[in-house]
From TrEMBL:
Chain ranges of the Ion transport domain: 55-278, 398-665
UniProt KW Heme keyword: no
Pfam family, one: Ion_trans
Keywords: Calcium, Calcium channel, Calcium transport, Endosome, Glycoprotein, Ion channel, Ion transport, Lysosome, Membrane, Repeat, Transmembrane, Transmembrane helix, Transport, Voltage-gated channel
Signal sequence range: none
Reaction(s) catalysed (UniProt annotation): Ca(2+)(in) = Ca(2+)(out); Na(+)(in) = Na(+)(out)
Protein name: Two pore channel protein 2
Length: 717
């Protein structure tokens, strides 16, 4: 091996180890120029630019026509939404497309032509770009007046293809669909049978006074099916059964039987199936990620064993410790893992590492991320040592929780006493004095804890950072209140001054005090377990949130295209029925058919009066639905749209989230039962580590077979 070959082997090992860290595939070009391009592409700067581009192109929907994004959602008062001139958003979109073209070109080049055709995501990426660019050209040719823009529905694909975990999650969901379909089919049979029973049970009679159930809910097959489908969501319960129940109490047995079979059995059975099947498919996905990591580490070992430092006649491949140290200096990895691997190398007495030793070193990547808290300061003074013991003791924290509870109770008492008073009759003296006393205690408590623990140790605890930040904000607000309005005194009701009135300042302080009471969570073990489970879901399950954004975005854009023009101009204000997240709330109201039908029969003036009494956002939704339900054709298609949305968002996605929540909680509960947490150590888990105990290690033969199939790497043995 020459010097140039050695440099190439070192660079290959660096890239393979970085691939293993990020669970990336190693099936890419490994020549010098390609390795440089590969590392540049996966650098933080390039990935940040790509993420920013995806965010921008998704955000364009908020300002593109027909956008309804305004400051207020009240249809009576909001101004027309800003309509950007033709070519502005299209220019931004073109720049985003150019970034995506560079992205797909680099990816395609790095994996090679043969691997490109095997990668369905890349092929779909190019097809999406071609369709989007063609649709973009059509938009400009029509001077941005066309109503249907196909490329807007395709935009979520750019977010989807950029996340490997999101693609694995989607693949797992796709594999779970057959099992879910069987239960959904059973649910459809259940719904159909009870629809037939309902139409027979609540058929029209000669007495019109006894036909309220038939008129309201079971007039025909579509209405009957819709009424029971909404009842399955419990949105129209008990409205749907009130007319029949008023006529004869025995009719309640029909609705009870429908609800018990549908909600208690079939829906929960669907949750159980999704939990069991999805967990299995997700486990397979994580198993493949582990294989990628082991393969990347083994590939790094193989290329490093080709260096000239390795004995040529050795029966077994070895890697020198010096070569590995040289590689580790250039690898981008977590400093904790790098330091742990280097410590292990220094403790190793041998100069050569076998494949097993090399792989074992990098098992540090699979371990829990452990955060060690800094030590407390050591005081020489006897008095300071007693102070440190007293204010560093857990009981001092419990005392702070009791004081915080007393603060909350005092605020509640004052608010209850002043609930019915007019602003001119209210005396803010008591509330201001109480807040002043407790904020001073919080400041003293924070300073004493810093004295006992030291600033670094104090800030190393998230609960202390939360507590300290709110204390500082409360102190600043209190000082600002005193500077503007003076100190509290009886009859303290000064006029409005500055940005906020005195009452606004006091309310803001009280809201922060109530929020600060969350500090009790770490002291309650079971509550802390629940909260950490939720936080882990937020931090580690971003892939599921990403797919949720994709679903919301796709349905929002589809809703805009389907129902654009369904809401006619009123006065000189033109309203668009669907904004981004409006579809969810529209569906919630749409579920209650009794509620909506009662509104539809009102006169125009009654509708306006009803909207004025219904609240701003609710009025907008009702206004949309009044016109959707006034047109029969649109109404029928609207039902299909919202039912599909309910199936995907509520039935499938919510159950998937429940399954993952259960898995995460059970995992943490098992760890809590088998190992008591240490006070100075925090364990941070990832999705891969959740399943670490049940994963199987790949064998030597499997790794070498896969390496010999590498399209661009030629091994010496």
């Amino acid at each position: 091996a020459t010097g140039a070959d050695n440099d190439l082997y070192i660079n290959q090992a660096i890239v393979f180890i970085e691939d293993a860290i990020q669970y990336r595939s190693i099936n890419h070009r490994v020549d010098s120029k390609s390795l440089w391009l590969y590392r540049w592409y996966y650098s933080r700067t390039c990935q940040w630019i790509l993420s920013l581009t995806i965010t921008i192109i998704l955000a364009l929907a908020f300002v593109e026509k027909p956008s309804s994004l305004t400051i207020t959602s009240d249809v009576r008062y909001r101004l027309p939404a800003w309509n950007p001139p033709c070519g502005l958003t299209e220019s931004i979109e073109l720049l985003c497309f150019l970034v995506f073209v560079v992205d797909v070109s680099v990816k395609s080049y790095l994996i090679g032509w043969e691997e490109f055709w095997k990668n369905k995501w890349l092929v779909a990426y190019i097809l999406t770009l071609i369709v989007s660019l063609a649709d973009w050209i059509v938009s400009l040719s029509f001077f941005c007046t066309e109503n249907v823009r196909i490329r807007r529905i395709l935009r979520p694909f750019f977010l989807l293809q950029n996340s490997s975990m999101m693609k694995k999650t989607l693949k797992s969901i796709n594999s779970t669909l057959p099992e879910m379909a069987s239960v959904v089919l059973l649910l459809a049979v259940h719904l159909s049978l009870f629809t037939m029973f309902a139409m027979l049970l609540f058929a029209r009679t000669k007495d019109g006074q006894q036909d309220k159930e038939w008129v309201g809910y079971f007039r025909n097959l579509p209405d009957s099916l819709t009424s029971l489908l909404v009842l399955l969501t419990t949105a129209n319960n008990p409205d749907v059964m009130i007319p029949a129940y008023s006529q004869n109490r025995a009719y309640s047995l029909f609705f009870i039987l429908f609800t018990v079979l549908g909600n208690l059995f079939l829906m929960n059975l669907l949750t159980a199936i999704i939990y069991n099947q999805f967990r299995g498919y997700l486990l397979k996905s994580v198993q493949s990620s582990l294989f990628r990591r082991r393969l990347g580490i083994r590939a790094a070992f193989e290329v490093l064993s080709s260096l000239k430092e390795t004995p040529p006649n050795a029966q077994q491949s070895y890697v020198s410790v010096g070569a590995l140290l040289q590689v580790l200096q250039k690898v981008e990895m977590d400093s904790r893992c790098k330091q742990a691997i280097m410590r292990s190398l220094k403790m190793c007495s041998c100069d050569q590492l076998s494949a097993a030793q090399f792989q074992k070193l990098f098992e540090e990547l699979d371990k829990d991320s452990i955060k060690q808290h800094p030590p407390s300061p050591e005081y020489q003074s006897r008095f300071m040592q007693k102070m440190q013991f007293a204010f560093g003791h857990p009981y001092f924290g419990y005392l702070g929780n009791v004081v915080a509870l007393a603060n909350i109770i005092s605020i509640c008492v004052v608010l209850v006493m002043d609930a019915d008073k007019q602003p001119s009759e209210r005396d803010d003296f008591f509330l201001g004095a109480i807040n002043c006393f407790f904020i001073l205690y919080y400041l003293l408590e924070m300073l004493l804890k810093i004295l006992a623990m030291g600033l670094k140790r104090y800030l190393s605890y998230p609960s202390n950072r939360f507590d300290g930040l709110l204390t500082v904000i409360l102190l600043v607000l209190e000082i600002a209140t005193f500077a503007v309005y003076g100190f509290p005194h009886p009859g303290w009701r000064p006029e409005f001054m500055g940005l906020l009135s005195l009452w606004d300042m006091v309310r803001l302080v009280n809201m922060l005090i109530v929020f600060r009471f969350l500090r009790i969570i770490p002291n309650m073990k079971f509550m802390a377990l629940v909260v950490t489970t939720l936080l882990d879901l937020v931090k580690n399950l971003r892939a599921f949130a990403g797919i949720l954004v994709v679903v919301f975005y796709a349905f929002a854009i589809t809703g805009i295209m389907l129902f654009q023009g369904a809401v006619v101009p009123m006065g000189n204000i033109r309203r668009s029925c669907f904004s981004f997240f409006l579809i969810y709330f529209c569906f919630v109201l749409f579920q209650s058919s009794f509620y909506i039908k009662k509104v539809v029969v009102l006169s125009f003036q009654e509708k306006c009066d009803f909207m004025a009494l219904s609240g701003h956002f609710q009025a907008e939704v009702i206004y949309c639905l009044l016109y959707l339900l006034s047109v029969n054709l649109i109404c029928r298609w609207a039902k299909i749209y919202f039912v599909v949305w309910w199936l995907i968002s509520s039935v499938i996605w919510v159950n998937l989230f429940v399954a993952l929540l259960l898995e995460n909680f059970i995992h943490k509960w098992d760890r809590r039962c088998h190992r008591e947490p240490l006070s100075d150590i925090e364990y941070q888990r990832t999705v891969e580590l959740m399943f670490r105990d049940v994963l199987e290690e790949p064998t030597e033969e499997e790794l070498m077979e896969k390496l010999h199939q590498h399209p661009h790497l030629q091994l010496c043995r």
